[in-house]
Amino acid sequence: MSGFYHVIIRGINQEDIFETNRDKEKIIKYMKDKKEDYVEIFAFCIMKNHLHLLLRGDLKQISLFMKMIETSYALYYNRKRKRSGYVFQNRFKSFPIEDKEYLWHCWHYIHLNPVKAKIVQTPEQYYYSSAREYRLGRKGLVNLTAFEEYQKDKIYYPVSKLTHNLEQSMVYIDDLDDEKEKQKQQIMKRWVKSYLKNHPESNIWELKNLPVEKEKLIEEVWDMNIMSRKEFVRRLEQF
Fold first, then answer.
1. What does the alpha-carbon distance between residue 199 and residue 56 come to, in Å, rounded to a whole number?
2. Using one digit for the tens of pLDDT, what is the confidence trace for 33-88?
3. Cβ(68)–Cβ(51) under 8 Å?
4. Is the Cα torsion angle 135, 136, 137, 140 positive or negative in sign?
5. What is the pTM of this model?
6. From CA 182, how far away is CA 232, in angstroms rounded?
């Protein structure tokens, strides 16, 4: 499948840039004002220091859309706080969605952010995400096409099927602070361990008892921009 992207923007230096309800409502307004001309929004979740979006559209148009909302919000944010300078950490990050199952993994992952942060017990309880729109059937930021595709596919990709292994299959390296190198390495090792367990016959793992060679292998396939375990495994299998 093509045209789907998981987009993430963060506050500079991990700062809380969506701290108040007014802040969150402002970024929603800017997205609502710009989205119809450029992109389809399938999911969103606004946390204190970052924003997740599941978008469909041409990447150039998505880039234009993100630039417009980031610019509008930065002007508002700096004016409100009487400050100047950058508001967002670097350019937004965008990750292509590989297939339909991955799409709904990402959809659930985005909505589970406030649950993982222990803000709410269920996704639809969180006011500033699209989980409420889907639960209540109310059109807001989410494109009408998204509602239709969700209704069509939810029997095949229910939350019970996708989330039981979510932490293993959708651990986002980008969600971790830059200084948490040890945590990143632990995630990587868990992916490798899982792959070894499920593919004991794999020839590449004849190197598993040779630490130096194994580290070399990991260096070849590992990339801190990798979005998910699925992409990591794909690289392993191509090595």
1. 34
2. 887 777 899 999 999 999 999 999 998 999 999 999 999 999 999 998 888 888 98
3. no
4. negative
5. 0.73
6. 18
> Terminal CA-to-CA distance of the chain, rounded, Å?
24
pLDDT in tens, 219-239: 555 555 554 666 666 666 655
Q: Which residues pair with 51 in a beta bridge?
A: 9, 46
Cα Rg, the chain, nearest whole Å: 19
How many Cβ atoms from other residues are within 10 Å of residue 168's Cβ? 13
CA distance linking residue 61 with residue 190, whole number of Å? 37
The residue type of 38 is Y
Selection from 50, 56, 40, 47 nearest residue 6 by Cα = 56
Classify 168 as helix, strand or coil.
Answer: helix
Q: For position 131, what pLDDT does the model report?
A: 92
Partners of 7 in the β-ladder: 53, 94
Q: Can you give the pLDDT at residue 233?
A: 66
* φ/ψ of residue 15, rounded to 5: -75, 155
- Residue 36's nearest CA partner among 57, 21, 53 is 57
User: What percent of the chain clears pLDDT 90, i.e. is strictly above it?
Assistant: 29
Give phi and psi for 95, each to the nearest 5: -125, 125
Residue 51, φ and ψ in degrees, nearest 5: -130, 130
- What's the number of CA atoms in the CB half-sphere (13 Å) around residue 205? 14
Q: Is 8 left (phi over 0), alpha (psi -120 to 50) or beta?
A: beta
Residue 211, judged by CB atoms within 10 A of its CB (0-12, 13-18, 19+), counts as: exposed
What is the number of other CB atoms lying within 10 angstroms of the CB of residue 1?
Answer: 11
